[in-house]
C-alpha cells in the first residue's frame, strides 16, 4: 500500500497537474502531501536515476524537489499547493 | 531611550518564549520563521484551510504575535547572517515569501540583540537501502501526520533511538496504520539505567513522564511490540521499501550475527536522535561545544559572540519545557531585562532541570560507536550525491589527501542540494580528522535573481 | 617543501621524480586551504604576451602529460579541456578584446573570434547582447584539490615524506645559509627549503628572515544547485582581465561562469584586499550575481546553494615568485600566483626543479626572480 490521506469533512478540493496529468488535492496540503495522498511515493531521480520522494518532510534533505510553474528546485514538503499549479518532476541534471 | 530591537530566529517553543519575554522587557521584537504557522516542529499544526479540530495553545501564541511591539514574519527565510563590527549584533538577511519562490522580498534586520532558536531535525544514520522511497525520518512521519493528515504507510516499522519514536507510533496508530514494531537500538539496560538515574529529578518533568506512560499504554492496547536492542539495519525493495531487515544489537550497536529477521513493510520510519541546525550560529561566529555538537552558551544563554543568544535544541536536545525556559531567559536578557528578576530566576531553575533531563536522555539513548558495521562499501552515505561508504573511506585513507574539504571535493559528499545537512555529522564521524559540518554561509537557497536584486530593504 | 598546496605538491613531485629526498611539511593538511577554495582554472586566455603567458603555456602542455593514464580515484582531478569564451558587452570592450586577442595570437595562443551564430551555437543560453566574443580552445579546468592530491601522491610514491600539522616556526641559518627550519613537530634539516605557502608566503618568509611581499587577496564565488546543462565553456566577461591586472585594494567584480561535472554552476569572481578577514559580504555576493546574470539572464531562477571564499597570493606586479632568494642561500620561493596557481602549478614545479638542479629551464626564469622591486620592496 501507499501513503493515504485521512479524510475530513469540509475539505476544499484543488486541482494541480503533475507532468501534465491532472491530480486532485485538498486545500492546505503541501505539494508533497498532494503527491503522497495520490499514491505517488517517489517523483524525483537522484544522480544514478534512483527514485526519491519525501525523506525528512521538513525542508532539510532536499530529496523532494519539484518544478512548480516553471521554477525548479522547490521543496515539495514546504510549498503549499495552489489550485492550478503545474508541477513537473525533476531528475538530477536533466530538468 | 528607544526600545531595544531584538530579532528572534525560529518560532518554535524556544523562539516564542524568547519573543514573549523580550516583549515583557519592553523590546521591539521581530520574530522570524520559515513556516507559515508558529510553533516549530513541536507544535506543528495544519494550516487554517486544513483544520479538523480547533488548535490548542493558539491563544498563547496570539498574545505574542499580536502584540503591538511584535512583528511576526512568517514564511521568512534567513539566507545569511552577516558578522558586523565587534560589539554589534550580526545583520540578518531575510527573504519573505513562499518557500523556494522567486521574487521574494529581501530585507535586512539590524537588531541590537539576536536570539537564535533554529531548532533541530532528525539525525538518521545511514544503512543499506535508506535512500529507498518509503524510508522516512520519524520527523517526516510526524509532520505528515500532524500537518497533512497523512499516514505514510499501512504496515510500518519504527526504529532508531529515543522517546520520540513513541509519539510517532501514536500518530500512525491514530491514523489507522499497523505499527508492526517499535525498535529501540539501545539495550533495555542502557535505557533503564539512563532514565532511572537520580529519579527525584524526574519529578520536575512530571508532564513528560506522564506523556511517555500514555504512549506506552497506547502501544500495549494496540499490541505493538516495543523491542530494545534491535534496529533496522537494511531496507529492501524494488524502487520502494518492501521489507525491512532488523537485527539484534549489542550495547555498542554492533550486529549480533544470525539475529537478522526480514519484516514485510511498506514504510520504515527512523530517527537516531536529533541534529541541531547550527548554520546560523556558525555564521554568527558562535563557538560550539566539544565535537561541534551544540552552541556553547553561558548561564545567561549568551553565546561567545556579544549580543547573540541561543535557546532551544541548538544548545542541547532537552525537549520543549527546557527550550521554553531557555527562550524565556534569552529573550528577557537580550531585551535588557534585569538578570536578577524573579522571572529569570525561575527560568534558570527550569532550564537547569531541563538540562538534567537532557543528560538523562543522552545517557538512555546514546548512539553506539559500532553502528558503522551496518555499512557496506556500496552503501550510500551522502544521499544527494550518492557518495558511498567505500568511496569515502578510500578518499579519507589517501595519504596525499584526507583533509575533510579535500575528501568532500573529491567524493562530493555533502556538496549536493542539502549541503550536508543530512550526512554532515555522519561524514565528520567517518573521517579521521573531523571538520565542523555546519558551515553553510548561505543558510537557505536564494535564487540568483533575488540575490542580484538591488533593493534590499531595511525593516520599517 | 614548505607548504602542501598545489604549488608545493607540483614542486615536490618534480624534485622527488628527479631523485631528491623531499620532505613536505604543512601547517594543516594537503590542499585544504587556497587550493581547495579555487575554481581550478587552467587558462591562457586571461594572459597577455609576456612571462606569465609563457609559464601558462608550459603548464598547459604539461597537464595532459601529468594526468595521462590515470584511473579510478585519480580521475577526481576532473581534467576538462572545455575551452574558454571571452565576451565583451560594450563597443569599447569589443575593441579592447579584439586588440588583446590579436596580441595573444601573435604570441602563439589560439584565440578565435566568434561571430554571433557561432557564439549562439557554442553557448545557446548566453545573452545575445554581446559586442565581441573570442574562443580560447586551450583553456581547461581541473578539480583543484583532486589534482593536488594526485601530484602529491606521485611525490609520495617517488619517496617523498609528508608531515602534516607541522607549522614552521622559524629558520636555522649558518653563515648566510639556511640549514634547517624549526617546526611544531621538531627541526627539519635540508640543503634547500622551498617556500610554497601561497598567501601565507609573506608571513612564512618573514619567519625565515627573508620576507617577500606576497599578500592575501580575498576572492568569493557562488555555487548554484545542480542544473541541466546550461553553460558549456568557461565564459567570462572581458572585464575579468582588467580585474586580475588591477592593483586596487577595493572590490573588483567580473563575471566568470562555468559548469562543473556535477552539474552545479560556479559563478565568480571578486577580488579585494582585506587581509585574512574571512567574512562573506552579502553585497559582494550580490555584485557577482548581477554580473553573472548579465551574461546568462536565464539563470535568474537558479538557486544559489553555497558561497565560498578564499585567499589568493597576491604580488604587486602580478607575477609569481619562483627562484632562489638572493639574501639567504638555500631558500627558494614558489609562490605569488594569485588566482592562477592551479593552472600554473605544474609549470612552476618544472621551472623550480630545473633551476634547483641546474638544468636548462623551458621558460625564461628572470622575470620570476625574487630580486625585483615588487617582491623585495616595501613589505606590508
TrEMBL record, chain A:
UniProt KW Oxidoreductase keyword: yes
Oxidoreductase listed as a keyword: yes
Keywords of the record: Oxidoreductase
Pfam families: Fer2_4
Record-given protein name: (2Fe-2S)-binding protein
From TrEMBL, chain B:
Pfam families: Fer2_BFD (PF04324), Pyr_redox_2 (PF07992)
Domain of life: Bacteria
FAD/NAD(P)-binding domain location: 5-327
CDD domains from the UniProt entry: GlpA-like_Fer2_BFD-like (cd19946)
Keyword DNA damage listed: no
Stretches assigned to the BFD-like [2Fe-2S]-binding domain: 380-433
Keywords attached to this entry: Oxidoreductase
Keyword Iron-sulfur: no
PANTHER family named among the record's database cross-references: ANAEROBIC GLYCEROL-3-PHOSPHATE DEHYDROGENASE SUBUNIT B
Name assigned to this protein: FAD/NAD(P)-binding oxidoreductase
Organism lineage string: Bacteria, Bacillati, Actinomycetota, Actinomycetes, Streptosporangiales
Amino acid at each position: 500500500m501507499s501513503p493515504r490521506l485521512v479524510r475530513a469533512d469540509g475539505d476544499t478540493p484543488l486541482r494541480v497537474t503533475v507532468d501534465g496529468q491532472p491530480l486532485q488535492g485538498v486545500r492546505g496540503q503541501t505539494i508533497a502531501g498532494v503527491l503522497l495522498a495520490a499514491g505517488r511515493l517517489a517523483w524525483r531521480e537522484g544522480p544514478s536515476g534512483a527514485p526519491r520522494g519525501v525523506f525528512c518532510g521538513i525542508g532539510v534533505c532536499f530529496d523532494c524537489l519539484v518544478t512548480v510553474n516553471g521554477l525548479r528546485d522547490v521543496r515539495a514538503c514546504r510549498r503549499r499547493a495552489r489550485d492550478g499549479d503545474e508541477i513537473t518532476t525533476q531528475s538530477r541534471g536533466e530538468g | 531611550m528607544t526600545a531595544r530591537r531584538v530579532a528572534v530566529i525560529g518560532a518554535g517553543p524556544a523562539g516564542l518564549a524568547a519573543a514573549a519575554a523580550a516583549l515583557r522587557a519592553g523590546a521591539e521584537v521581530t520574530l522570524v520563521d520559515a513556516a507559515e504557522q508558529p510553533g516549530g516542529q513541536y507544535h506543528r499544526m495544519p494550516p487554517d484551510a486544513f483544520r479538523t479540530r480547533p488548535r490548542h495553545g493558539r491563544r498563547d501564541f496570539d498574545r505574542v504575535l499580536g502584540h503591538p511591539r511584535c512583528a511576526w514574519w512568517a514564511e521568512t527565510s534567513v539566507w545569511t547572517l552577516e558578522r558586523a563590527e565587534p560589539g554589534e549584533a550580526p545583520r540578518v538577511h531575510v527573504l519573505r515569501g513562499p518557500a523556494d519562490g522567486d521574487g521574494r522580498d529581501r530585507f535586512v534586520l539590524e537588531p541590537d540583540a539576536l536570539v537564535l532558536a533554529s531548532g533541530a531535525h532528525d539525525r538518521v544514520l545511514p544503512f543499506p537501502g535508506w535512500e529507498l522511497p518509503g524510508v522516512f525520518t520519524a520527523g517526516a512521519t510526524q509532520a505528515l501526520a500532524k500537518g497533512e493528515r497523512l499516514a505514510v504507510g499501512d504496515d510500518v516499522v519504527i526504529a532508531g533511538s529515543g522517546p520520540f519514536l513513541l509519539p510517532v507510533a501514536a500518530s500512525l496508530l491514530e491514523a489507522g496504520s499497523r505499527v508492526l514494531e517499535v525498535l529501540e537500538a539501545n539495550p533495555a539496560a542502557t535505557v533503564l539505567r539512563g532514565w532511572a538515574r537520580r529519579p527525584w529529578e524526574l519529578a520536575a518533568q512530571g508532564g513528560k513522564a506522564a506523556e511517555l506512560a500514555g504512549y506506552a499504554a497506547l502501544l500495549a492496547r494496540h499490541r505493538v511490540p516495543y523491542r530494545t536492542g534491535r534496529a533496522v539495519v537494511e531496507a529492501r525493495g524494488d524502487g520502494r521499501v518492501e521489507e525491512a531487515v532488523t537485527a539484534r544489537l549489542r550495547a555498542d550497536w554492533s550486529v549480533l550475527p544470525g539475529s537478522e529477521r526480514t519484516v514485510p513493510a511498506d514504510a520504515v520510519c527512523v530517527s537516531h536522535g536529533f541534529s541541531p541546525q547550527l548554520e546560523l550560529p556558525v555564521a554568527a561566529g558562535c563557538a560550539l561545544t566539544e565535537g561541534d555538537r551544540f552552541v556553547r552558551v553561558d548561564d545567561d544563554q549568551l553565546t561567545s559572540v556579544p549580543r547573540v543568544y541561543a535557546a532551544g535544541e541548538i544548545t542541547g536536545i532537552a525537549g520543549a519545557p527546557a527550550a521554553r525556559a531557555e527562550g524565556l531567559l534569552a529573550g528577557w536578557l537580550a531585551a535588557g531585562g534585569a538578570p536578577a528578576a524573579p522571572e529569570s530566576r525561575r527560568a534558570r531553575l527550569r532550564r537547569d532541570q531541563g538540562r538534567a533531563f537532557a543528560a538523562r536522555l543522552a545517557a538512555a539513548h546514546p548512539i553506539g560507536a559500532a553502528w558503522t558495521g551496518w555499512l557496506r562499501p556500496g552503501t550510500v552515505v551522502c544521499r544527494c550525491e550518492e557518495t558511498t561508504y567505500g568511496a569515502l573511506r578510500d578518499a579519507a585513507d589517501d595519504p596525499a589527501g584526507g583533509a575533510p574539504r579535500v575528501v568532500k571535493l573529491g567524493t562530493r559528499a555533502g556538496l549536493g542540494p542539502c549541503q550536508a545537512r543530512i550526512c554532515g555529522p555522519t561524514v565528520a564521524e567517518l573521517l579521521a580528522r573531523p571538520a565542523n559540518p555546519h558551515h553553510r554561509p548561505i543558510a537557505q537557497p536564494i535564487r540568483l535573481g533575488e540575490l542580484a536584486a538591488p533593493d534590499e530593504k531595511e525593516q520599517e | 617543501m614548505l607548504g602542501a598546496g598545489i604549488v608545493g605538491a607540483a614542486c615536490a613531485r618534480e624534485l622527488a621524480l628527479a631523485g631528491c629526498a623531499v620532505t613536505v611539511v604543512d601547517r594543516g593538511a594537503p590542499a585544504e586551504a587556497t587550493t581547495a577554495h579555487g575554481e581550478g582554472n587552467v587558462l591562457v586566455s586571461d594572459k597577455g604576451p609576456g612571462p606569465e603567458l609563457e609559464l601558462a603555456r608550459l603548464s598547459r602542455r604539461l597537464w595532459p602529460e601529468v594526468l595521462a593514464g590515470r584511473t579510478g580515484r585519480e580521475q577526481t582531478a576532473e581534467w576538462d579541456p572545455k575551452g574558454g569564451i571571452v565576451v565583451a558587452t560594450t563597443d569599447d570592450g569589443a575593441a579592447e578584446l579584439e586588440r588583446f586577442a590579436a596580441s595573444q595570437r601573435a604570441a602563439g595562443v589560439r584565440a578565435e573570434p566568434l561571430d554571433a551564430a557561432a557564439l549562439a551555437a557554442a553557448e545557446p543560453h548566453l545573452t545575445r547582447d554581446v559586442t565581441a566574443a573570442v574562443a580560447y580552445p586551450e583553456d581547461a579546468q581541473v578539480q583543484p584539490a583532486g589534482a593536488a592530491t594526485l601530484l602529491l601522491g606521485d611525490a609520495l610514491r617517488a619517496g617523498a615524506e609528508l608531515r602534516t600539522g607541522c607549522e614552521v616556526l622559524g629558520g636555522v641559518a649558518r653563515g648566510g645559509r639556511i640549514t634547517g627550519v624549526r617546526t611544531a613537530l621538531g627541526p627539519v634539516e635540508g640543503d634547500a627549503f622551498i617556500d610554497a605557502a601561497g598567501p601565507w608566503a609573506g608571513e612564512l618568509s618573514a619567519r625565515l628572515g627573508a620576507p617577500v611581499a606576497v599578500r592575501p587577496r580575498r576572492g568569493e564565488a557562488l555555487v548554484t544547485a545542480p542544473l541541466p546543462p546550461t553553460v558549456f565553456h568557461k565564459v567570462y566577461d572581458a572585464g575579468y582581465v582588467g580585474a586580475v591586472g588591477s592593483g586596487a585594494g577595493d572590490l573588483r567584480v567580473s563575471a566568470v561562469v562555468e559548469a562543473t561535472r556535477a552539474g552545479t554552476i560556479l559563478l565568480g569572481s571578486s577580488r579585494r584586499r582585506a587581509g585574512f578577514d574571512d567574512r562573506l559580504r552579502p553585497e559582494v555576493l550580490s555584485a557577482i550575481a548581477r554580473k553573472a546574470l548579465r551574461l546568462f539572464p536565464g539563470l535568474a531562477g537558479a538557486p544559489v546553494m553555497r558561497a565560498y571564499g578564499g585567499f589568493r597570493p597576491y604580488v604587486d606586479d602580478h607575477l609569481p615568485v619562483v627562484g632562489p632568494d638572493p639574501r639567504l642561500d638555500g631558500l627558494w620561493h614558489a609562490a605569488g600566483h594569485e588566482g592562477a596557481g592551479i593552472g600554473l602549478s605544474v609549470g612552476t614545479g618544472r621551472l623550480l626543479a630545473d633551476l634547483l638542479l641546474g638544468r636548462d629551464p623551458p621558460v625564461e626564469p628572470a622575470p620570476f626572480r625574487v630580486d625585483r622591486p615588487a617582491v623585495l620592496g616595501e613589505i606590508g
